[in-house]
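[Meeting: bench + compute handoff]

Bench side (C.D.) handed over the final construct sequence. Compute side (W.E.) agreed to return the predicted structure before the next meeting so the bench team could plan truncations. Sequence as handed over:
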Amino acid sequence: MIGSGFILPGISGGALSVVFGLYGPLIKFLAHPFKHFRQNFFFFLPVGIGGILGIFGLSFGVSYLLGNYENIVLWFFIGAIVGTIPAMWHDSGKQGRSLTDMSLMIIAFMGMTLFLIFGLSSVNTIEANGWSWLLAGILIGLGLVIPGLSPSNFLIYLGLYKGMSDGIKTGNLTVLVPMIIGVVLVILMLSKVMNWLFEIAYSKLFHLVFGIVMASTIMIVPTNYDGIGMLGFSIAAVLCLLGILLGWWMSRLEQVVAK
């Protein structure tokens, strides 16, 4: 299930690792890989295998649906994000909620929105090459080390999501190798930093992430509905509702596990 967080928009691999109580141990392992290496390696090996199976399994369905019904299917993903908002809001305030935290959230939301609108004006023509797949890997790595940050939101906006799904489905090494390098780079550079930041500034960091996620969600809302018709709108509404229920259910898992 954690693997779904790297392929399904609105679902964060880092957040799912929190749900199953694995985030803390995983970040500590990544930050200090040689400390209790043998014990940690065999503990996380099944998690890694399951994550890889989840990524490859879901890529087939996602690739087909986005290739044929993108504007309708996106509403399912938007719903999944909306369904996780109450849990994300709750998690961000676990250690209190100050005026500074709220200000950071608003600044992050406004800054990311402006960046996505004006800073990536050529996003629809971004070239799919080794550098873009390296960027995709970096975003996926960030989704692992930062709970609540769904890399697929940004990949959809960047126009890389469909190509990534196709590359994973077909085992295209020109896509997979740069992505893996990007993930490894993020883990090597940020795991210790994130471990430290969450210890000293949990609330501020989580509110920052919350603002970024909200901005990226708004930017993937479809605006072109030519030729969809009433049936398409009805299906989109149903998919959005199902997405909300899925997001809410995934969020509830954390509370169940915590108890």
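W.E. noted at the follow-up: DSSP finds ten helices and no strands in the chain. C.D. will use this when planning the next construct.
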